TrEMBL record:
Any one GO MF annotation of this record: glutathione transferase activity
GO cellular component, one term: peroxisome
InterPro entries for the chain: DSBA-like_thioredoxin_dom, GST_Kappa/NadH, GSTK, HCCAis_GSTk, Thioredoxin-like_sf
Organism: Puma concolor
UniProtKB keywords: Transferase
Active site: S16
EC identifiers of the protein: 2.5.1.18
Reaction(s) the record says it catalyses: RX + glutathione = an S-substituted glutathione + a halide anion + H(+)
Domain DSBA-like thioredoxin per the UniProt entry, residue ranges: 7-198
Protein name stated in the entry: Glutathione S-transferase kappa
C-alpha cells in the first residue's frame, strides 16, 4: 500500500529570487519524494516588518554579494534567473503587493494554475524570456478585478500571518508536517536537510529524472 503524501507548505513571494529557486527544486521533487506541496503566496515586506528584519539590498555589501550569488545559483539549479536592470527599483520601490494579491486570487479561484502562474510572474520579474502560463485574457482580467476585494486581501494577510507564526523572518520558508511535528526551514539551500527529515534521497537540485528531460 502506497504511503500517504507528506505535507509541505512553501511560503513565497515573487519578489524573492531565492523563493523561485526553492520553488523549482520542490516542484521537481514533489513526485520523487511523495509530498503534497502546498503553495502559499505571502508578502515578504510584511514578514520583514513583523520580524524586524530588512531586505539584503539595503546593505551595500549584501546587495553586491546577492547579485553574484543569484547568478551562480541560477546556473547551478538551472533556473533562467537574471537580475533586472532596475534591480533596486524592483526590490525597494515597486514591491510585490499587487502580484501577491493576484496569486492569492489565482489560488482561490483556479488553484491548479497557481504553480504555472507563479512561475510566469517570476519569469517576468527575474528573466527576459517569459512564457504564457495558459490563462485566458478573460480569466486574468477577472482575477485582476478581484485583487482589491476583502476576500483576497484577507487571504493574503492570513497566509502571511501563518508564515510569521511559524517563525518566518524572510522567504522562502518551507514548513514540513511530519509525524505530528512541524519543521520550519528557511531559504532555498535547505533541501538536503529537508530530504533528511523526509527520509528521502537528495540527488542535487536537478534530479536525474528531471535532468534527462532537459
Amino acid at each position: 500500500m502506497t504511503a500517504a503524501p507528506r505535507t509541505l507548505e512553501l511560503f513565497y513571494d515573487v519578489l524573492s529570487p531565492y523563493s523561485w529557486l526553492g520553488f523549482e527544486v520542490l516542484c521537481r521533487y514533489k513526485k520523487l519524494w511523495n509530498i503534497n506541496l502546498q503553495l502559499r503566496p505571502s508578502l515578504i515586506a510584511a514578514i520583514m516588518k513583523d520580524s524586524g528584519n530588512q531586505p539584503p539590498a539595503l546593505l551595500p555589501r549584501k546587495a553586491q554579494y546577492l547579485q553574484n550569488d543569484i547568478r551562480l545559483l541560477g546556473q547551478h539549479i538551472q533556473v533562467p534567473i537574471q537580475l533586472p536592470k532596475d534591480f533596486f527599483s524592483v526590490i525597494l520601490e515597486k514591491g510585490s503587493l499587487s502580484a501577491m494579491r493576484f496569486l492569492t486570487a489565482v489560488n482561490l479561484e483556479h488553484p491548479k494554475m497557481l504553480e504555472k502562474v507563479s512561475r510566469e510572474l517570476w519569469m517576468r520579474v527575474w528573466s527576459r524570456a517569459a512564457e504564457k502560463a495558459g490563462m485566458s485574457t478573460e480569466q486574468a482580467q477577472g482575477l485582476l478585478e478581484k485583487i482589491s476585494t476583502p476576500k483576497v486581501k484577507n487571504e493574503l494577510r492570513d497566509t502571511t500571518n501563518a508564515a510569521c507564526k511559524y517563525g518566518a523572518f524572510g522567504l522562502p520558508v518551507t514548513v514540513a508536517h511530519l509525524d505530528g511535528q512541524t519543521h520550519m526551514l528557511f531559504g532555498s539551500d535547505r533541501m538536503e536537510l529537508l530530504a533528511h527529515l523526509l527520509g528521502e534521497k537528495w540527488m542535487g537540485p536537478v534530479p536525474p529524472a528531471i535532468n534527462a528531460k532537459i
